[in-house]
């Protein structure tokens, strides 16, 4: 059984939605056609009843209103039969014996003598063609034939006269069938410029003729065929769109599997600017970051192995020399071994500090950071003097003389931060350079904080490497990264420690030509301003 992927799920959902919509459209269209066909036919039928509206207008003009016709079914039937009614009633008036135009002209045998006769021997000219209502109306809607043909076709169930009625100008029923005027077709009866009534015709209820049913079947077939074509096109379009939309997701899935297998150089093609393109760009950034971190990790492991091997090799040489009797164990040998052990222990401590959580072993007490900085400077004074690096610390002495800033923190960890920064200057600043330390205490308006600046002289750090300077495992390939420049963990440890104390640390180019490190620490609420 094929796997039901997300693209297939979306396609099936779209297909189901389209099928429901198209079936609903086709069904509603067929129902609307069935219901609207009767109203449409009624409009056509009533437009062909103009002869009856003329007779009704003559009746209204002769009587001045509809009162004589009100509820008078006999008069209504006589109006429906037109001038034929007078002939059937045996009227003596010659005008009344005239047949209505829809009757007197039927068939080639119609004719007679009268004033209208204009042919030879007083014969009537050839009869004109049938009147429009007989020519256009279906046979079942034709006016009634003579009584000797069959009794009264108006009484038939499918007769148009069963659906025909008259209402006045206000819509009140006058005579004929009582019809729901909202759905009925209406033909106005105008007397002068005024509408005095309406001839109303109700639509057929149901399809009764073969022609009606055939017409509806043809239209329903057209609607069904159109719906099927639209459904096929919509399904094809849905499939193409689903493949287009989810192709980037498939590519991302394959790329993620490649990254999981260790191929960190894998990237995906980014097309467009939509959410999927943003996802692809984010994935590429993540892969690039992982690739960079992995490369840094390998480089750091190589550097760490080298750093560990150096003191271990020195100790091994000293011990082997003692074992071979080349050297005797004296105070100088012990001092050299002790120095290598201290160096090895410091490196191990740096490795451990870079891997632990910043706040996991933070011992918070009242700490005076300027005192810790002075202690670190005193500890490294001789080494700065040996390299000819001038240390300017007047700002620290000036601030300490005015007040003693206090923070809540770990004295040992803060002392390690200051030592790392000073060691960084000793390792990377050229001999005969300069280190300038600035200190300011900001008041309540700026958050009660202590800011320290460490500015050293050349060489500096390239601008592209500046944002990554505090990253763990990072060692820049510049003149500040010498062979004995350390393992690349010092500044990373500094950042973790300062952030654990709620402060910030930043690096930028120094005006002295080297690096400027800025530390901001929040002061304790009980600190002296």
What does this structure look like?
- There is one protein chain.
- The chain has helices at 6-47, 50-63, 73-81, 84-88, 101-104, 132-136, 210-260, 275-324, 331-355, 369-387, 394-402, 411-428, 490-500; strands at 164-168, 173-176, 185-191, 194-201, 365-367, 390-392, 407-409, 434-442, 449-457, 504-509, 513-522.
- The protein is of the alpha+beta class and 529 residues long.
- It folds into three domains: 1-84 and 157-252, no CATH class; 264-355, Signal transduction histidine kinase, dimerisation/phosphotransfer (DHp) domain (Helix Hairpins, Orthogonal Bundle); 358-522, 2-Layer Sandwich (Heat Shock Protein 90), CATH 3.30.565.
- A five-stranded mixed β-sheet has the order 6-8-9-11-10. Strands 2-1-4-3 form a four-stranded antiparallel β-sheet. Strands 5-7 form a two-stranded antiparallel sheet.
- Strand 8 and strand 9 form a beta hairpin.
- Helix 7 packs parallel to helix 8, helix 8 runs antiparallel to helix 9 (331-355) and helix 10 runs parallel beside helix 12 (411-428).
- Residues 86-142 and 478-485 have low confidence and may be disordered.
Features:
single chain, 529 residues, alpha+beta, Helix Hairpins, Heat Shock Protein 90, 3 domains, 50% helix, 13% strand, transferase, kinase, histidine kinase, phosphoprotein, HisK_dim/P_sf
